Amino acid sequence: MADQSPLDAYSQVVTGVAAHLTPKVASLRVPQSRSGGPGPRRGGESLGSGVVFTNDGFLLTNAHVVGNAQSGTASFADGTSTPFTVVGADPLSDLAVLRASGATPPPAELGEADQLVVGQLVVAVGNPLGLAGSVTAGVVSGLGRSLPTRSGAAVRLIEDVIQTDAALNPGNSGGALADSQARVVGINTAVAGVGLGMAVPVNATTRRIISALMRDGKVRRAYLGLVSVPGPLPAPLQERFGRASGLRVSEVVPGSPADRAGLRTGDLLLTAAGKPVEKAQDLQRLMFADAIGKPLAITVMRNGALVDVIAQPSELVAA
Fold this sequence. Notes:
Low-confidence stretches: none
Largest sheet: 6 strands, antiparallel, barrel
Number of helices: 6
Strand content: 35-45%
Mean pLDDT: 87
Shape: globular
Radius of gyration: 21 Å
CATH topology of the largest domain: Pdz3 Domain
Structural class: mainly beta
């Protein structure tokens, strides 16, 4: 009988990803006050994981891991550790960028979550205690999920959240979710239930957030002041626009930019800035700094007719 490898193809992929990424994922210890974030604690510290993603010592983690802290310590699987400072945190995406003051391992490669498919193998790599790392594997069990987050009175949905059955625990928050090529396609952010985890996707929107955090230490967002839910398009509009749904306005905040623009409860949003609007994420991805104070063309269906309005988003400020 021919010799057989002790590892099957699945195991070879997982062990390969683990070997590549484990050195690049840090254990984070973040001093916290009693009113700090919800992460696991040891002696007044919030514990989590972080992923090195640049050659000059930037790490990516969850905003809830760092809370209101300004600094902490990152420890790696090879036994080395370094202090870090919090460059910026964005609770509304649950992402934070850190900068290590000492040497870090070579960076992980960021992938593209928008290319994931349900059923695809993914590997979760964390380092919650600074030991040899924590590695679990599973599949993408859902895409396009929404995870509500809050900063003060502002509430936002993290768009296109990745749902996976790779086992997670709170100490793995901020760790990497990787594809079979060891490319980081998500940052593990929440344990949603038994056998269920969520990860913030790495895609064009989150890259924009990461860049803003690195550059400005914060993310400026535009604000319209409306609440919406998906709503079906009438058959003639489905043919005209080539899609089945838009966004039904369920509430307009009095005095908000949406209110001043004349948007009304019951309007069905079809396009914004000339782009299709089918779900809340389509509108949210337009609400960044470059939209603040600028005219935003919106087309809605109202009482069976198409109506064009011009809104001028203001800056979203935390209460």
